Amino acid sequence: MTTTGVRSASMIRRARVLLALDTSAGAVAPRVVIADRVGVSCDTVRLISKRYAETGGDVWATVGRKARALPPVPSAVTGEVEARLIALACSTPPKGHARWSLRLLEKHVALVEDIPDLDHSTIGRVLKKRNCVLM
Predict the structure, then answer these.
(1) Residue 135: predicted pLDDT
(2) Rounded distance, CA 93 to CA 73, Å?
């Protein structure tokens, strides 16, 4: 893995740290020396060795990326919210306005109880994704 160059740089770096920490090859150098050889910080060497111990000695689990179970924040825009937003954007604009703007839509979305408060940039992304043009 470290010689072919087919893997990502972070994966190769972690593998090199594990190879330097390998006790079967002889005496292990101090963390400071390993960090200098590989080009990482001492804290990185400590974290990689800790993760290796936590995974039960599984090299691929240590070297690879952690799989995230869920996205960090669930999206406020669901299919129903998207449909309501598009319906509002396609309706006639309020009195005194010639057309809907993103900021005007943002103000009206805040007044509607069924739709969560959305930023004008989020509204713009939803409308752009569905190819809706404000007129």
Answers:
(1) 64
(2) 32
